[in-house]
Amino acid sequence: MAKKSKGSAAKSKKKKKSPGKDKLAAQKHTSARSLAVEELQSRLKQLSLEIEKVGEQASKAIVRTEAESQRILQELDNKRAAAQEELNQLVDKGGTAFRDLSSGFGKAVDDLEQAIKKAFGRFS
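RE: above sequence
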């Protein structure tokens, strides 16, 4: 019977916990958890700021790209207008003037074709 008493006494010792120790352990756990949550919130806030910066840079890049695209399109339109003007002059002239102007028109068309190829390369 003595053995049972010791076992019962050991169980009694294990069951008895100090309420102060439990409360202290719970406070430590809650404090560590709170610190971890605060750290995660801080990291997420920092990442949100980084996302905003990326968005600003992307917006600036879009504006630059759009401006560059408009410049290229304007350049192509100017070259097309120059080629059209060369063709109009070519139609109005005859003889020697026709031969002289046709070489200028050929150069204007070649220049326009090269500019179009270059533009396709940039936009592809």
